[in-house]
Write a structure and sequence with these properties.
Keywords: Glycosyltransferase, Golgi apparatus, Membrane, Transferase, Transmembrane. By secondary structure, this protein is mainly alpha-helical. Helices cover 43% and strands 4% of the residues.
């Protein structure tokens, strides 16, 4: 498919994905700046093809075992003697706090 993904969300896309594999809305000051970039990309065939080249090097797939690391972590945590009885683990703190980014507001 000849589509360049435009993303906005709680992931640091600049760190997680190769440059020019997608357009990260967080890199723009607002919707107008993003729209101007997308319009320029539409008319610049060479730049558009660069994005498609980079994007096409990768394939998306669904990993069905996304909870496996959580189970492994909890199992290891339970093995510690001090955690064997009545220990409550704050999953949000352990798994998400400081790891998930909130997207900035659209202005």
């Amino acid at each position: 498919m000849h589509i360049v993904p435009v993303v906005r969300g709680g992931v640091d896309y600049n760190r997680e994905f190769p440059e020019k594999s997608l357009v990260n809305a967080a890199n723009f000051k607002g919707p107008r700046e993003l729209a101007a970039f997308l319009k320029s990309l539409e008319t610049d065939e060479l730049e558009y093809s660069r994005y498609l080249e980079v994007k096409d090097r990768y394939r998306a797939f669904v990993v069905d075992n996304r909870w496996c690391p959580v189970c492994e972590y909890l199992h290891k945590l339970y093995q510690l003697p001090e955690n064997r009885r009545h220990k409550v683990v704050d999953l949000r703190k352990e798994l998400y706090d400081g790891h998930v980014l909130t997207p900035p507001p659209i202005v």
